[in-house]
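Kindly go through the following sequence and its backbone structure tokens. Advise at your convenience whether the structure tokens fit the sequence:

___
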Amino acid sequence: MISIKNLSIESHKSLLISQLNVHFKQGEFWAILGKNGSGKTTLLHTLAGFLNYKDGSIKINDTELKSLSILSRAQSISLLPQTLEASLNCTVTQSISYGRYPWHKNKYDKETEESIVNTAIKAMELEDIKNDSIQKISGGELRKVEIATILAQDSETMMLDEPLNHLDITFRFKLMELLKQLSKNKTIIIVTHDIQYVQEYCSHVIMLLDNSRTIIGKANDIMTKENLNTMLGISLPNKFMNKTL
């Protein structure tokens, strides 16, 4: 479980989030929503331990995040950034296997390690290109490799920044179904602009509003037209609402 208490986050001397209090538990599928520049990515990277924060605390199972070693943190939290570049000249399988690094001291046998990687490859439907160089695959395929690497890392909490980027419509649904299934035994937190997927698949939502305010709760309770209009600063048409909510 990740416990957030009185968390305040600044960026470029501007207060993005003020006094955030929330608990992320196993069995929950969270979405972070907000306009561009509202602090969604900053919040996610802060929760993952990659950015400092102004005030408050972040605890992983009652241990301060800042006190955890890099390996312990990686065993607890995996982070999929919004964008990555295929800078290494390695195969798809090799790239995904790097997700197992946080567990190398556990000395799992080779068969177990290969099984975990192959399961991730299968989940992302990468079997046909698993021996290809990641520098020669498409943007959508590369995104699948990145997600498969997170799956192979097998952390207690998975954080994904815009995981649907570059994926076709069919696979977007498949991925959201997979994340929902994984959330039964893990904590899943995504950043997204795709409201329709949030309503369909996510259990909880954080809405980032103007003036460092937030709305937090169960998706069914807070994914209302009024709250979305407040978050987006516009009046959504009823036709749109009928399609998504």
About this structure: The longest strand covers residues 14-24. The chain has a mean pLDDT of 92. The radius of gyration is 18 Å. The CA atoms of residues 225 and 241 lie 7 Å apart.
